[in-house]
Amino acid sequence: MQNATRRAGHGLAKALGVKLQEKEPVRDELSRGESIFSIQTTDTFVEQQPRSIDWVVDQFPSRKDTTSYLWSLFPFLTWISKYNWSWLAGDAVAGITIGAVVVPQGMAYAGLAELDVQFGLYSSFMGVLVYWFFATSKDITIGPVAVMSLLVGNVVTEVRKTHPEFAKEAIASCLSVLAGAVILGLGLVRIGWIVDLIPLTSLSAFMTGSAINIAVGQIPPLLGIQTVETRGAAYRVFINTLKHLGDTKLDAAMGLSALTMLYALRHGSTALAHRFPKKQKAFFFGSTLRTVFVILLYTLISFLVNMKHADDPSFQILMTVPRGFQNAGVPTVNTTLVKLIAPYLPATIIVLLIEHIAISKSFGRVNNYTINPSQEMVGIGVANMMGPFMGGYPVTGSFTRTAIASKAGVRTPLAGLITAMVVLLAIYALPPMFYYIPKSVLAAVIIHAVIDLITTPNTVYQFWRVSPLEVFVFFVGVFIAVFVTIEDGIYATVGLSAAILIFRILKARGRFLGKVKVHSVLGDHVIGDDHRDVLGEYGTFSPPVAQPARNVFLPIGHPDGSNPEVEVDNPYPGIFIYRFSEGFNYPNASHTLEHLTSYVFANTRRTNKNHFAKRGDRPWNDPGPSRLLKRKNRSRYNNGSSEGEDGFPTLKAVILDFSSVNNVDITSVQQLIDVRNQLDRYTSPDFVDWHIACINNRWTKRALVSAGFGYPAERADGLQHRWRSIFSVAEIGGEDSPAELQEVKSNAAILSRTTSMHVGATLDIESGLAADSSEAPTPANGKASAAGEGEEAGATISGIPCTESRGVKAVDMALKRKQNAVKGRPVAVHGLNRPLFHVDLTSALQSAIANVEARMEVATSESEGAVTGR
Fold this sequence. Notes:
The chain is of the alpha+beta class. 55% of the residues lie in helices and 6% in strands. Among the domains are: 83-466, no CATH class; 511-613 and 628-714, STAS domain (Transcription Regulator spoIIAA, 2-Layer Sandwich), CATH 3.30.750. Helix 8 (200-217) packs parallel to helix 10 (234-243) and helix 21 (457-466) crosses helix 22. Residues 573-709 form the STAS domain. It is found in: Membrane. One of its GO terms (molecular function) is secondary active sulfate transmembrane transporter activity.
């Protein structure tokens, strides 16, 4: 069947004019050439190319993969059966604490979303109620957040400018359903990695710009100023606030004093916790509940001030808050509303994702667990799709509440269910108390919460130390968020970061490497492969044979910051080592290879000295080196003797370091072929050897082999059959490994001592019998007895069959067999059919030099034979 399929495939290829892969010239010639080791003493290893059908089959999920996927959609199933009272205690404390915090925050953030306060409570309830079923993070709490609320408020305002017939809550609910559906889809197809495309600088700029916008927008309600539009750019809001300071009312006294008290409670609790470490937990909860305390205190003050004239309060209060879920129902999602909201979806999705995933990853690292970003998307998506049925608007993870939950000792995601109970209690039992909450105090709560989101100067300085260019991106994002809109700030930072990344990839330039011998020094001693293997005193490394050394390859010119006093030069005249820096794909292939060829041309000469018979035959773009450069290169490459008129060596080999290359594509491989052909013309009538080291991917090997790399190129003079195959061999593992041999030796020594003791005891007994009795056992009887005992007590110790009767001789024979088996089993690391693929640069350089010198020996012998023939 397989042969029939092969014949059919070859027939179809012939009909279509497809040239199938030619037979590799080295595959059937593994025993030819001057190998560094004998094929007969080494296991032959021939690399097989990966097949496309295997890749296709691997992409289809198996039954086990499908079951695992379905199980992963509900992570709570892995731990709910192990739930215990200890976990419940931690979750109860954390859940009640978060509930006490999220109620006032949700009410405050609803104002940012241009909604009534009850919608913040609805969103708080549905977020924590639904999320815990799908959560992979125990710490994060999902609900209304300041930044998302501000963005929802902007969407509501913009849509109602042209379509005032849509209610505010309808717009917010539709936005939540659409964003949740998109995020749920992304999570179900498991592409949570998409969040990694947004860098930390973009997130920091977005959070900082948003915090500034929110804080500035809350200054007018904090001061009781009602004549300033708070939905404009932050700088306009600030300027207009200054213009209307005369309109400040009694609200300012309530708001400013509440804000001052919030900071005083926080800093006071922190100071007391440091002063009294034993009561640190109590002070933590005191600090955590400061928002609740301030709201309760000022609600009481407001009640005392306004209870006799509640319809005409002395400062702005919330007034009536509906009890229960008054807006529960199917959310409005129609074509008109979807078209109006669609332009704002990208920004909404980005905000929902980056804040939640960044927070969950951060707390996962702190508390030593790993989250699944794709599954977190499922949780966010479901929460935002279900929330609008109870009147909620878009929700995501909250940094402040997550930090509180973590410090409060949350044990599992089930704490969200307890938080939902607290919020439900507030929705049904506390609305009458909400009537007297001052709006200026809610503004103070918002300002107090968002100020912590502003990136600190110390963090910006650390950014500068790592990457000054990204600090520029950070400030651009903050500037646009403050002076234009938050959405434009998001797009600007993400776009700039992507542009910088693409530019780095496009303009990537590899490094040419030189060889340096280094020694490992521990204290005042030179050490070997093991740091405990002290080999000598650290001095001037003389005599060199007494000091171990290894080869390392450093960039020529020391662009890596290595010591400039260390001399780094080309490892061999005409051989160049090139390391890719940003991979090797179609975006950077052209620029990278242009850098490679320009350097090679600048440091070599043509192999054919008569290529340009006269100076005037040189093309205008290749005038040749100056006289000063000629003299310099004669000294550099030839110790003062000229190899040619230019003083340069000829190009002999190129070694590519693929340690930073994971995949290649058609464009990059084709350009590599073009460069190979270009350099072959440059070195004509000779050829350039291409050695490639540190290949990380089988598909990359397949692509390179299909392009003719990995084995010697066909030559008209047949010299490709004289290649010297320097392979890297390694110790095999398992029973035939040297480690196993060492264990055999240890066991053999124990067995030898045991057998000797037993034989000695037997001789003493026999001696006693000979003295006490006139009849001693015959040798025949003794031999039979020993044989029988050996059959009953025969054993195998680490592969050494032995009996007591065989003694030391049997052990020695088995040990020798084991040693011979180990000594005869080295294996090649890479396939013998890929002699120009190498495990490291040292092997590649050794192979390149060996082949270059072999060709030189052949050329010398042929020239001497020609002279002798004459």
